[in-house]
């Protein structure tokens, strides 16, 4: 159920740390990729080896340890990859540090460095929980969209019967599932997505292309599938893994992409064109032989490719479908996006600039038919995908 979801799991030094073992084990059974980070004090209650064995990954207790995973800057790479940060149990100390923006250990550094959703399961003595400073810190974190679960009333380690117990692992896992697996609000819908750049052949080994990685289109396809849609992904060449449970049609050129889109057009409720399709292709292609190296200049004449969005806009039944385009502009972003939207009769257009190419995050604006513009700050492409699909869903 949580396959391909990366979770950073923070363990701080409450006596409830032993319950974190069950939590990690349950998340692993749901096929999540779990990376545990422990505070130094927590390692005095449960050994990192326990979590290493349960999670199948090295446990991060020290940002400067040579044993960290082989990733470029391990704690930042993991913070970027994570879909969710869970801190269970979370001490008063960690709540305070996060609310104050303090990052003096691996757990707080990774949490503050991550854009992922956060789920906090506090555990502490009831007087600590009621302490006005702790309440103030919890309020701050809630305002920053940290989700809290518990603490519950019950028998505490100190013998008191009061509020402060960490919520049960089953409840924490259910909350994590709710945060990670969205509502099945696209069930019964067929979403057709295009992704990646196209290659326009010059000869059998050379081509014209662009820097598109395909990450945005793949993220939209995965997000639509998670929300219950049947998904067809028409993809130009990329280095990305084949997404699970999605019909993947691989194409090379703009012409090939157009053909594939038209093949699946009839069944689609929504068509989201995230591909960076070449606007031009060589007029002549040396089909059989490679152009020989020469001393003098050579000229390659380019002709415009067929415009996929315009072609779709003319198809029968167009009005019954939601058509979403992307506009990548290096100047006058919104103005040019609006123009493109009108020309191609789109329902929505996602405007972004060239800073988003190749990376895992995107800063973008959504423009609708009424000219309304919603601006979104830089965020992971997976989250951006869900925002775009929310708008698509609003249109029917
Ligand atoms: C046995 C034991 C149990 C503790 N349980 C809790 C607890 O449930 N909640 C809490 O906030 N602090 C608890 N503490 C105190 C924290 O361990 C202490 O504030 C520590 O400095 C927090 O470090 P950390 O937040 O970096 O893990 C406990 C301490 C001990 C010795």
TrEMBL record:
Residues 186-394 form the DNA/pantothenate metabolism flavoprotein C-terminal domain. It catalyses: N-[(R)-4-phosphopantothenoyl]-L-cysteine + H(+) = (R)-4'-phosphopantetheine + CO2; (R)-4'-phosphopantothenate + L-cysteine + CTP = N-[(R)-4-phosphopantothenoyl]-L-cysteine + CMP + diphosphate + H(+). Pfam families: DFP, Flavoprotein. InterPro entries: CoaB-like_sf, CoaBC, DNA/pantothenate-metab_flavo_C, Flavin_trans-like, Flavoprotein. Its cofactor is FMN; Mg(2+). Pathway: Cofactor biosynthesis; coenzyme A biosynthesis; CoA from (R)-pantothenate: step 3/5; Cofactor biosynthesis; coenzyme A biosynthesis; CoA from (R)-pantothenate: step 2/5. The active site is at 158 (proton donor). The keyword Ribosomal protein does not apply. SUPFAM superfamilies: CoaB-like, Homo-oligomeric flavin-containing Cys decarboxylases, HFCD. Binds 1 FMN per subunit. Its EC number is 4.1.1.36, 6.3.2.5. Residues 191-396 are annotated as: Phosphopantothenate--cysteine ligase. Residues 1-190 are annotated as: Phosphopantothenoylcysteine decarboxylase. CTP binds at residues 279, 290, 326, 340, 344. One of its GO terms (biological process) is coenzyme A biosynthetic process. Keywords: Decarboxylase, Flavoprotein, FMN, Ligase, Lyase, Magnesium, Metal-binding, Multifunctional enzyme. GO terms for cellular component: phosphopantothenoylcysteine decarboxylase complex. Residues 5-179 form the Flavoprotein domain. Catalyzes two sequential steps in the biosynthesis of coenzyme A. In the first step cysteine is conjugated to 4'-phosphopantothenate to form 4-phosphopantothenoylcysteine. In the second step the latter compound is decarboxylated to form 4'-phosphopantotheine. Catalyzes two steps in the biosynthesis of coenzyme A. In the first step cysteine is conjugated to 4'-phosphopantothenate to form 4-phosphopantothenoylcysteine, in the latter compound is decarboxylated to form 4'-phosphopantotheine. PANTHER family: HOMO-OLIGOMERIC FLAVIN CONTAINING CYS DECARBOXYLASE FAMILY, PHOSPHOPANTOTHENOYLCYSTEINE DECARBOXYLASE. This is Coenzyme A biosynthesis bifunctional protein CoaBC. It comes from candidate division WOR-1 bacterium DG_54_3. The gene is coaBC.
């Amino acid at each position: 159920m949580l396959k391909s979801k990366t979770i950073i799991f923070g363990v701080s030094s409450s006596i409830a740390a032993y319950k974190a073992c069950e939590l990690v084990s349950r998340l692993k059974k749901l096929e999540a990729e779990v990376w545990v980070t422990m505070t130094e004090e927590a390692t005095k209650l449960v050994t990192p080896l326990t979590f290493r064995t349960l999670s199948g990954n090295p446990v991060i207790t020290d940002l400067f340890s040579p044993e960290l995973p082989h990733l470029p800057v391990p704690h930042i790479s993991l913070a970027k990859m994570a879909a969710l940060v869970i801190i269970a149990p979370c001490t008063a100390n960690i709540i305070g540090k996060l609310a104050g923006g303090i990052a003096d250990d691996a757990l707080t550094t990774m949490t503050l460095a991550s854009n992922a959703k956060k789920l906090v399961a506090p555990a502490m003595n009831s007087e600590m929980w009621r302490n006005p400073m702790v309440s103030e810190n919890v309020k701050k974190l809630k305002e920053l969209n940290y989700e809290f679960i518990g603490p519950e009333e019950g028998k505490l380690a100190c013998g008191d019967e009061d509020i402060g117990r960490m919520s049960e692992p089953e409840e924490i896992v259910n909350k994590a599932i709710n945060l990670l697996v969205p509502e099945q609000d696209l069930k019964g819908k067929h979403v057709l997505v295009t992704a990646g750049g196209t290659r326009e052949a010059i000869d059998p080994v050379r081509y014209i292309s662009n820097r598109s990685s395909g990450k945005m289109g793949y993220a939209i396809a995965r997000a639509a599938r998670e929300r219950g849609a049947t998904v067809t992904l028409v993809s130009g060449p990329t280095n990305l893994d084949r997404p699970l449970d999605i019909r993947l049609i691989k194409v090379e050129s703009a012409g090939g992409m157009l053909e594939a889109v038209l093949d699946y057009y009839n069944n689609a409720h929504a068509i989201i064109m995230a591909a960076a399709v070449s606007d031009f292709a060589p007029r002549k292609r040396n089909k059989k032989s490679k152009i020989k190296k020469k001393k003098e200049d050579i000229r390659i004449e380019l002709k415009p490719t067929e415009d996929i969005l315009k072609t779709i806009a003319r198809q029968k039944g167009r009005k019954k479908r939601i058509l979403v385009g992307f506009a990548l502009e290096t100047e006058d972003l919104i103005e040019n996006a609006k123009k493109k939207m009108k020309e191609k009769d789109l329902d929505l257009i996602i405007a972004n600039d060239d800073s988003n190419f190749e990376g895992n995050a995107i800063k973008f604006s959504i423009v609708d038919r009424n000219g309304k513009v919603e601006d979104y700050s830089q965020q992971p492409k997976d989250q951006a995908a869900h925002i775009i699909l929310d708008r698509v869903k609003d249109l029917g």
